[in-house]
Write a structure and sequence with these properties.
It is built from three helices and five strands, in the order H-E-E-E-H-E-E-H. By secondary structure, the chain is an alpha+beta fold. The chain has one domain: HIT family, subunit A (2-Layer Sandwich), CATH 3.30.428.10. It has a five-stranded antiparallel sheet. The termini are far apart.
Length: 141
């Protein structure tokens, strides 16, 4: 399978589609998931083309995981979470729906249940969650 630069994340990277951006560096972008399964559900994506981890370079994977760790710490702080669920899917048979490498970062509390997939959240709630994470990132150190 080849990379399709018409996927939603490629369009977000080109700013052809809106997204609630949480963090960005030279190699990665973090956005809020518009169908969050937990409060603070974020997506970490490389800025360069990669269909998934099966065709990503080691540099793309390293950059993404460094960003995953950074925003995970911020999410723990922002939501007083006790843990992080990290999800990453590869190809349709593996559960991948958007064919641009991405990592789901979900802050978790002991005993909580993930919401069912596919339910859009209110944009104001997503923005408020992003604001909390951005504030935690700003005070990290």
């Amino acid at each position: 399978m080849s990379y399709d630069d018409g996927n939603i994340f490629a369009k977000i990277l080109r700013e052809e589609l809106p997204a609630e951006r949480v963090y960005e560096d030279d190699q990665t972008l973090v956005i809020m998931d518009i169908m969050p399964r937990a409060d603070g559900h974020m997506l970490v994506i490389p800025k360069s083309a990669a269909r998934n981890m099966l065709d990503a370079t080691s540099q793309q994977l390293t950059a993404c995981l460094a960003t995953v760790q950074l925003v995970s710490h911020a999410a723990l702080k922002a939501f007083n979470a006790q843990g992080i669920t990290l999800q990453q899917f590869n190809e349709a048979a593996g559960g991948q729906e958007v064919f641009h490498l991405h990592f789901h970062v979900l802050p978790r509390l002991e005993g909580d249940k993930l919401r069912p997939p596919g339910k859009m959240a209110d944009a104001a709630v997503i923005k408020a969650h992003a604001d909390k994470i951005r504030a935690a990132l700003a005070t990290a150190g």
